[in-house]
Write a structure and sequence with these properties.
- There is one protein chain.
- It is built from 8 helices and 4 strands, in the order E-H-E-E-H-H-H-E-H-H-H-H.
- The protein has helices at 35-48, 74-77, 81-89, 93-122, 142-158, 173-177, 186-193, 196-201, and strands spanning 18-24, 53-60, 64-71, 135-138.
- The chain has one domain: Transposase IS200-like (Alpha-Beta Plaits, 2-Layer Sandwich), CATH 3.30.70.
- The longest helix is centred in the middle third of the chain and has 30 residues, at 93-122.
- A 4-stranded antiparallel sheet has the order 2-3-1-4.
- By secondary structure, the protein is an alpha+beta fold.
């Protein structure tokens, strides 16, 4: 049974690694109450995540979200000014590696915090919007990647919001299928599926799997 929740919440994010990132709204709240909230989150996302990782797949749902990311390797990260400053402040390499992993996690904290501030202001709300720690699991096989991408794209279908993956506006399905030039790095997803024909074939129905928070 495919169950990505069987993992530690706080395993370190590794430069060059591929990870499934997922998080949930705090309590019974929603992360996205209106269509404009999704678009605003994606705009914030573009500021914080592309500098550190390539987006292979994603799905935003009313009360939770999933991301499939390939983090940039250390050499690519070192080209960024923020990471260069971090390196200058860290004298020995083991310390720097630890700080770099923390830096990757901090980008998500900044994303969720900035979105929460705007959301709370818009809806006259207070307090945290996301659960305390976002979850993560390293993707180490094509099999897992296929299952995960299929799960992401069928999430809105299984939840009853739409009847097919292409009907949900806030996932990577269309970008991958149509090979659109967007923030989604569709070629890696297609490589995992062995091409667009197999991508379509394996999206005819949900693969066996589950997801529990």
């Amino acid at each position: 049974m495919f169950n990505p929740s069987n993992t530690l919440d706080m395993i370190p994010l590794q430069p060059g690694g591929t990870f499934h990132i997922y998080t949930h709204a705090n309590g019974r709240d929603n992360l996205f109450s209106e269509t404009k909230n999704y678009y605003y989150f994606l705009e914030k996302y573009k500021l914080h995540i592309p500098p550190i990782a390539h987006t292979i797949g994603y799905c935003l749902m009313p009360n939770h979200l999933h991301l499939l990311l390939q983090f940039k390797n250390e050499d690519q990260l070192l080209q960024q000014e923020a990471v260069q400053d971090l390196m200058n402040r860290t004298k020995n390499y083991p310390d720097f590696r630890d700080q770099l992993e923390r830096f990757l996690s901090k980008q998500f904290a900044n994303l969720f915090s900035s979105y929460t501030q705007a959301y709370n202001k818009l809806y006259h709300r207070r307090g945290s919007l996301f659960i305390k720690n976002f979850k993560r699991k390293e993707v180490t096989s094509e099999w897992y990647a296929q299952k995960l991408i299929n799960y992401l794209h069928f999430n809105p279908v299984v939840s009853g919001f739409v009847t097919s993956p292409d009907a949900w506006l806030f996932s990577s399905y269309k970008a991958i299928l149509k090979q659109q030039q967007t923030a989604v790095h569709y070629q890696q997803a297609l490589d995992w599926f062995g091409g667009v024909d197999n991508f379509i074939y394996l999206h005819q129905h949900p693969m066996d799997g589950s997801f529990d928070y």
